[in-house]
Please model this.
Amino acid sequence: MPELPEVETVRSGLAPHMEGQIITTCQLNRPDLRFPFPAQFAEALSGRTIVAMGRRAKILLMALDDGWVVMMHLGMSGRFIIETADQRAVPGDFAHRSGANPKHDHVIFHLASGTHILYNDPRRFGYMDRVRQEELEEHPSVRSLGPEPTGNALSEQTFASRVKGRKTPLKTALLDQRIIAGLGNIYVCEAMWRARLSPFMPVGALVGADGAPGPHCAELVRMIRAVIAEAIAAGGSSLKDYRQADGALGYFQHRFAVYDQEGAPCRHEACTGTIARAVQAGRSTFYCPTCQMG
DNA sequence: CCGCGGGCCTGAGAGC
DNA sequence: TGCTCTCAGGCCCGCG
Model:
């Protein structure tokens, strides 16, 4: 479920508990998630110090002191739970779990501080892998990723060059991690609405014949960057099972203009439209048929 | 190359 | 109460 803002929120919540800590042991409670854990995964982590917690797109990156990086993807339902020694000492104290079922605790990092970092994932669409730091960019899950919508990597020029001439619907293109990395169904819908662009328009139409980004292109990139920044500031969006690492709820879901708002009035000033739902590439698109005409 | 459908999993909610 | 059906924030594969 988590998109970039949720993963970034988890990263910043985990960092103070993990950076500088020694992993005493890594406990695997099953041999696989979406994919099998790589050979010697748990053994390779024990005794290592966590140097930094990073992120690329929707992938969490745990950098270790031996030059390896642990890659962790939350899939649709992955969550991290911070469990301190004090919390474990009180039987029946499950408040920190926020309702997560213990039978889905698949990975537990035991830290020298006494804190346990639990990875809980009912649907098991997540995965973990490890890679040498210097080979991270060549990893199959990273190699083809497009620019981050945060920072300076994404500009209307870079976006235009990636979609020029393509007839793919805008919605499908924005979900393609090779074009922009980290967007998912929620923020794609929200960004298209903010930019007043139709989810069905061929994405290449945003680019001029000379390959230069048109005005809609610049506006779309601005709106993508804005919605992602606002969602990170709000701690992400909590729908069913997403929580911040400390169990807190994100609150960007209260600011959805279109996502899961079918039948609601469009919130664009002077628009009398009603939010509709369509299916594209097997996934729900929420949009305003009245004002998203571009 | 492209878009679509199906599949991977479990759980929540709606409808009967 | 309990059954069945649909749907879910991601992503990969194979098909036409």
The beta strands of chain A are 23-28, 50-56, 59-64, 68-73, 79-83, 105-111, 116-120, 127-132, 276-280, 283-287.
